[in-house]
Predict the structure of Mos1 transposase HTH domain-containing protein.
Amino acid sequence: MSAESSNLSNIEHRTVIKHFVKKGKTPKEIFEDMVSVLQESAPSYTMVKKWPRSFQQERGSCEDDPRPRRLVTVVTEENVRKIKKFVLADRRIKLWPIAEELQISK
């Protein structure tokens, strides 16, 4: 296998791990097989140990779970205008007073 074709994505690694779990292999055996084929592009043992546990608990997907994203409601025209007013009034103003005044995170 060429070095280029052995660079798998995380999802592809998980798919291989899932296949080996269904065949009844232990995480140690899975890791050893993956290292023997993928060499330096193999996933870490920690990752190989984590995913079989997930698949044995009836996890079906190899995809990452969706992560909550931060809402970008703080960046509004009104807040920009207020911040500009604070800075023009005192160019040495610190971040905390602005955040507290507008009730936004720093």
